[in-house]
Amino acid sequence: MKEAFASGTYGLAGLIIFFVFFMGVLVWLYRPGMKQRYQKFGQIPLEDEKK
Questions:
Q1: For residues 30 and 11, what is the distance between their CA atoms, to the nearest angstrom?
Q2: Pairing with 18, which of 6, 8, 33, 48 sits 20 to 30 Å away (CA)?
Q3: Is residue 31 situated within a structural domain?
Q4: For the chain, first and last CA: distance in Å?
Q5: How far apart are alpha carbons 44 and 49 in whole angstroms?
Q6: pLDDT, one tens digit for every residue, the chain (51 residues)
């Protein structure tokens, strides 16, 4: 089992999977029209509590 985790093929496959996942997260975060939403979320800690 140890040889499977030390394999160059599995290491490269894992790297590619991680890279594709990372690029997907970046595309999802920086899609058009999200700037206003993120700015609104950034203001939440500064708002007064409304009870």
A1: 29
A2: 33
A3: yes
A4: 57
A5: 10
A6: 566 566 778 888 989 999 999 999 999 999 888 888 888 999 988 888 765
